[in-house]
Amino acid sequence: MTHAGHSLLAATFLLMVLFLPAAASAQSDDLAYCNKLYAMAVRYSGKAVMGDSKPTPEMIVAQDQCQNGNTAAGIAYLEDKLRRTQVSLPPR
Q1: Whole-angstrom Cα distance, residue 10 to residue 50?
Q2: What b-and-e string marks burial along 1-35, b requiring 16 or more CB atoms within 10 Å of the CB?
Q3: pTM of the model
Q4: How far apart are CA 23 and CA 10, in angstroms?
Q5: What would the pLDDT profile of 18-35 be if each residue is shown by its tens digit?
Q6: 27-63: per-residue pLDDT in tens?
Q7: Do 19 and 27 form a contact (C-beta atoms < 8 A)?
Q8: CB neighbours of 73 closer than 8 A, spacing ≥ 6?
Q9: CA 57, 61, 63: angle at the middle one, nearest 5?
Q10: Could you count the other beta carbons within 10 Å of the beta carbon of residue 79?
Q11: Residues 45/64, Cβ–Cβ less than 8 Å
């Protein structure tokens, strides 16, 4: 590998190291937000079972999506569910 190739590889690695914590933090923030939305959705529009509010299958799928890294899909469903129930969304 040439000196230029090593320099490019080193620069790429440096950028990855610098931006990885920010990406991990954003994923963590999204997961926390999704968890909050899930709890609210269960509370305000869950299925009533013997006096308790239980998640619907769709809510469980949305939470599972968030837990497995697809926070965009899970959050979108849960936000829509809360809006349709006329519940204000929490701050992000």
Answers
A1: 60
A2: eeeeeeeeeeeeeeeeeeeeeeeeeeeeebbebbe
A3: 0.70
A4: 20
A5: 454 544 445 679 999 999
A6: 679 999 999 999 999 999 999 888 889 999 999 999 9
A7: no
A8: 62, 65
A9: 115
A10: 20
A11: no
Q: With beta carbons less than 8 A apart as the criterion, state whether 79 and 85 touch.
A: no
The per-residue DSSP string of the chain comes to --HHHHHHHHHHHHHHHHHHHHHHHHHHHHHHHHHHHHHHHHHHHSEEETTEEE--HHHHHHHHHHHTT-HHHHHHHHHHHHHHTTPPPPP-
Task: State in Å, rounded, how far the first CA of the chain is from the last one.
Answer: 46
Query: What tokens were used for 37?
Result: 């939305």
Amino acid residing at 52: D
Q: What span, in angstroms and rounded, lies between the C-alpha atoms of 19 and 34? A: 23
